[in-house]
Amino acid sequence: MQTLNDYEIIEKLGSGSYGDVMLAKQKESGLLVAIKTLEKRLLIKEKKQYQVFIEKEVLTQVKHPGLINLIASFQSSSQIYLVLEFVEGGDFANFLKINKNISQQNIVFYSAEIVSILEQLHSNGIAHRDVKPENIMVANNLHIKMIDFGTANFFDERGLNESVRDKLNELREISQQDERFMDEIDQYQQKHKATFVGTAEYVSPELLEDDICGPQSDLWALGCIIYKMFTGTTPFCDQTEYLVFQKVRACQYQNSNKIPQDAMDLISKLLVRDPLSRLGGGLPSINYLYQDSKNTYRELKSHPFF
């Protein structure tokens, strides 16, 4: 069993709601890694054990070149540690800021890579639920990797083994019990929402109206990202979060002369209010899900844009 003593901490890369992300070096191999630390006290207080378990299970069960690799996990009396592959190139949001005039060929390339990642996740019954440029890393070889599965969810558990399903049910029960901390949680959520402007521009109508965020919400976010790659801004961008949400609810966005016709057609078929009507919204047929659907990733990947 590994411990933190097996790693040399180099520097802090960033901070999250429940801990820090540290750049470290594996003492035995010299491998550079990113260690995500999570404070147990905060996870228990805010009933997030369920999400940590899901993040670990997603990265353990699903393998794809476009997913961050989980190298190891261990814990101390006060912390949970996830040892992740270190991606040196920075996030996609920063990449787009630097490369303001990205070519259509590269936009198609990165769009196809995101589609490939989402197809793999969705075919395994997993919705990411927070797809945005800040949660996509660009490696030195210019390929992308999706990160941060802290809000992911298993929308279909048929592919999970019994022990994993039992653990998920146990953690769900814990998250639903004991209301002692609800006031504190509400305060946290309000604070979190107030600083969540980046994600607000990628949020789907069903999340705003019904508090539902399934795999089709990832396809909505894909449409927003493609729009941003062509124009430099998101389709529902506005001065305040409230105005952004109003535009999202109304599915109100402008066609842009910066976007070619085939790309605009794809965007218009992803930014659809009805989740099941989005292109690919019947979800994938890689493994076993939705084999009879006529609106799968096959149709999405066959769009002329690609």
From TrEMBL:
Keywords: ATP-binding, Kinase, Nucleotide-binding, Serine/threonine-protein kinase, Transferase. It comes from the Eukaryota. One of its GO terms (molecular function) is protein serine/threonine kinase activity. The lineage of its organism: Eukaryota, Sar, Alveolata, Ciliophora, Intramacronucleata. This is non-specific serine/threonine protein kinase. PROSITE patterns: PROTEIN_KINASE_ATP, PROTEIN_KINASE_DOM, PROTEIN_KINASE_ST. Gene3D superfamilies: Phosphorylase Kinase, domain 1 (3.30.200.20), Transferase(Phosphotransferase) domain 1 (1.10.510.10). Belongs to the protein kinase superfamily. AGC Ser/Thr protein kinase family. PDPK1 subfamily. Residues 7-306 form the Protein kinase domain.
